[in-house]
Amino acid sequence: MTNPSKKPKGAEISRRDILKSGAALATLTLAPGVTLMAFGGKASASEDMPADGLKPGARWGLLIDAGKCPEDCSACVAACSTEQGWENNGLDTDPQWIRKVTLKETATGRTNSLPVMCQHCENPPCVDVCPTGASFKREDGIVLVNRHTCIGCRYCMMACPFKARSFVAAPVTGQKSYSPRGVGTVEGCNLCVHKIDRGDGTTACVEACTATGNNAMMFGDLNDPQSEIAIAVATYASQELRADLGLGLGVRYQNI
Amino acid sequence: MKQLLTSLLAMAALLISPSYAQSLFPSVPKALGEPHPEGNEYWRINHPALLAHDRDLVVLEGIRDVDASLTGCVVCHAVNGPDQAPVQSPVSADSPDNSCRVCHEYVAVKIGCFTCHASVPAMEDVARILPEYSNSDEGWRAYLEDLSNLQRVSQ
Q1: How distant is the Cα of B6 from the closest Cα of chain A, in angstroms?
Q2: What is the pLDDT of residues A173-204, one digit of tens each?
Q3: Residue A29: which domain range?
Q4: What ipTM was assigned to the predicted interfaces of this complex?
């Protein structure tokens, strides 16, 4: 399982290891007694780094066609619950990874049903307010909670205009190994980050929506001009929820 | 005085008797899979730092293929519960037999991991980390059986 050639491990790289690693060392004497030392060349970190990781330059997003989303269907919610291992029990403290919302235009009475989850903002308010840096945006645009540093203060829940975050108020058992969640931390849609890192190229909710035949949801890389979702948003009208806030959402809706 | 002498004698007997002498230390269950090439002593000392380093690679950078993964710990160091033939399953961190708890309780260090992380191995993780077991009921049964045999070795 472990490869001895990968040593030294990042956790215990010492000054001695860096000196031994053969990294090019440039020394510049700025003034008597003041020396500038720079490491360059073959950085030991990149040698040890495994080849996988997030796709640089990607902007993962969803395109949801509310016109194809029946009011009585909640396959995406059920799929998320199964995939991520959370349960709703009708309480105020229920998880809010994804939920079906019905919109009604008061003037005309036209109603619309659509799933709402974390919108994976380009400028996420939850990240702005987080006092520990636990709420963060990955380089590929996915907004996540690092539960190792989350202190459960719930500022991000207050800041989110979409109510996409929820607090785990009671101890949890039976978590999925790829989706840890536990009491005292905040959680929300992670855009099935484990599936993206695995290269599945889809999310549980999109898979479920496609399986029902409604085809109301699409997942893809908005920054890749060849991707289905980028072509779709370039061709057809779509909009962000609360576009007035200028958050640059990764989730876009059609026919609202 | 006589009482003191008796208790001293009893304590001495405890120390001399080999079975009692062993029980003073945690009986660490053996594990499946290849042994750590760095040695057990190295991992006993360094596992918190190694896990903390690699968890940041996973969470922040999406690098999933790391050396020190908690799922890896849970899969190889699983301990089967008491014999409830024919069904046996690995114990969770709620059980004092859990291999993390055996040592952590001895040194009185709280394990924070399992508030959020799964402490029971899942079939697909077993098949991914230990490829000798297939991702099927058959592979799972073989895994459980090998776990039970390991326990007998350690006792």
Answers
A1: 48
A2: 999 999 999 999 999 999 999 999 999 999 99
A3: 4-48
A4: 0.79
